[in-house]
């Protein structure tokens, strides 16, 4: 297996760089899907395309019957202007919310696709030694449902039968993040936060900027709403029990410096690890924002839409996986008890249907302190290609060892 991983590594690097130069936004990953499907077919796998719009599923049947396990990678890029300086940096554009925007693999999904393609090639080469079935899931739109779409990639693939025929008993996935190259880390139970998008629309009364008392000032209301959200989160949630982040990230209002507008729109994100606590905070926020708006004579519309559920790593599988990942990464390189993180992942929806574990690969550039390396979604995010063979190996060993379980 080690020799097979080494043989496929140059191809994995080439695939990664090709995907990086040709990034595609969620549900527009047509080129990426075609490259993946062609490769899986060349390996003799059963291939389904168009699952969840652009998703691809490959099924590898071993020489003998046995268990069924799934491995997953995501495919979409982000509306980000790349600033890595790489020779193969993206110059692509796409359409987002009706606008032409730069597009880049600023989250590492190019790495994920390439590693899972490499794992498929290694496992296909071992087909005669395998008892059981491996399902390879290449998922679109992990970054959330594009505007106008009711579901993101994982939820839509599940709705369209991604986990049926054959039905996996478990699913595993990985993500490159800042961290020491060669390190692997995760935790049982709540690992990555549930993510909600929050939208607030304030309605007031337009007036001259010199006569604010003759209108209803939504700018003042918006300022109070932001303070209210920050205070509610800091003063009504026990930070020792579960991390909670509630951020207002956009505020759009007005067209001229001396006109107080009649409306303002705000949006933000809520990250939580406890369903009951999340529901209580949402209820308090909606009530408080209504009261703030009413105090000024304005009105408020408050909406919440879930982008990703809590990434909940199955406790039993998490314990079982630690020595498997150590076999791949080497002693001292696996931490199965890392703190939770407030970033989100829609891998969580697969875990709501079947048990699964999601883990992270440290991929900071050589010689760079992981705490100082560019984070995911940054224009400078540039994961270390030296971790590509490790990602292939963790996929392969996770599948093989699971199929060998008694």
UniProtKB/TrEMBL annotation:
The lineage of its organism: Bacteria, Pseudomonadati, Pseudomonadota, Alphaproteobacteria, Caulobacterales. This is N-acyl-L-amino acid amidohydrolase. It comes from Brevundimonas intermedia. Keywords: Hydrolase. Residues 365-385 are annotated as: Disordered. Gene3D superfamilies: 3.30.70.360, Zn peptidases. NCBIfam families: amidohydrolases. Residues 198-295 form the Peptidase M20 dimerisation domain. Signal peptide: none annotated. It comes from the Bacteria. InterPro entries: Amidohydrolase, Bact_exopeptidase_dim_dom, Peptidase_M20, Peptidase_M20_dimer. Residues 370-381 have a biased composition (Polar residues). The keyword Transport does not apply.
